[in-house]
Design a protein that fits this description.
The protein is of the alpha/beta class. The protein is 43% helix and 16% strand.
């Protein structure tokens, strides 16, 4: 079986924060709320990569107490707005697709394990003409569970037909770190996402400062 490298998507392979924040602002307008998020603010960028509800809560918190009914009401409008303009600002991080291509040229399996809904994740990869680079994609709603539940990771590995003893999770958040710990696999965290300055505090098995250094990071974790 193949060595397998499984990546998170948002904040790891691609910076999706601009389009996510724009969608959140559309949702706030839909709700009639004065809340807005700033695509140039690091805190807002980092929050965007943790999910739709987190963005809604952040914006509403700046107006006072968070109303969870408003969070629920804004969730679907946010997803709808995001799906309409899913790749206007999104870009892969420098060297990401080149690194994936190198892995596959060597015979490695490469997958995506993301807490983004599967349909939106596939739509994004199609919009960026990148779907063919990956052997499998498992999204937030593909299974009854999602990260940090390790079954989310294991299902991605199975779909990649990868070797359980030679696999790693590459991510950018505490959720990815917890997923790798629960699965008992090495974890590499990237430092170039908006929250990258603090990921060392999560004690990953290796840090990745640029995709040009992926081979070195894999060597650090024994792959």
């Amino acid at each position: 079986m193949k060595r397998c490298v499984i990546f998170d998507l948002d904040g790891t392979l691609a910076d999706t924060s601009g389009d996510l924040l724009a969608a959140a602002n559309v949702a706030f307008a839909h709700l009639g709320s004065d809340a807005r998020l700033d695509p140039a603010a690091p805190v807002d960028q980092a929050t965007a990569l943790t999910g739709a509800r987190a963005m809604l809560r952040l914006g509403l918190s700046r107006l006072g107490e968070i109303d969870e009914d408003l969070v629920d009401a804004g969730y679907q409008p946010l997803l709808d707005a995001y799906g309409t303009n899913i790749a206007e600002h999104t870009q892969f991080y420098p060297g990401a697709l080149d690194a994936v291509a190198r892995l596959r040229d060597r015979g490695d399996a490469v997958g995506i394990c993301t807490n983004k809904p599967e349909g939106l994740a596939r739509q994004l990869l199609d919009a960026l003409d990148a779907h063919h680079h990956f052997d499998a994609l498992v999204g937030a709603d593909t299974l009854p569970v999602r990260k940090p539940d390790p079954e989310h990771f294991w299902e991605t590995l199975r779909r990649c037909e990868g070797d359980k003893a030679r696999t790693v999770l590459v991510g950018d958040t505490d959720t990815d770190r917890k997923t790798a710990t629960a699965a008992g696999v090495p974890c590499i965290l990237v430092t170039f996402a908006p929250a990258g300055g603090s990921v060392a505090d999560l004690r990953p098995d290796a840090l990745l400062h640029h995709f040009d250094q992926l081979d070195s990071a894999l060597a650090v974790v024994g792959l």
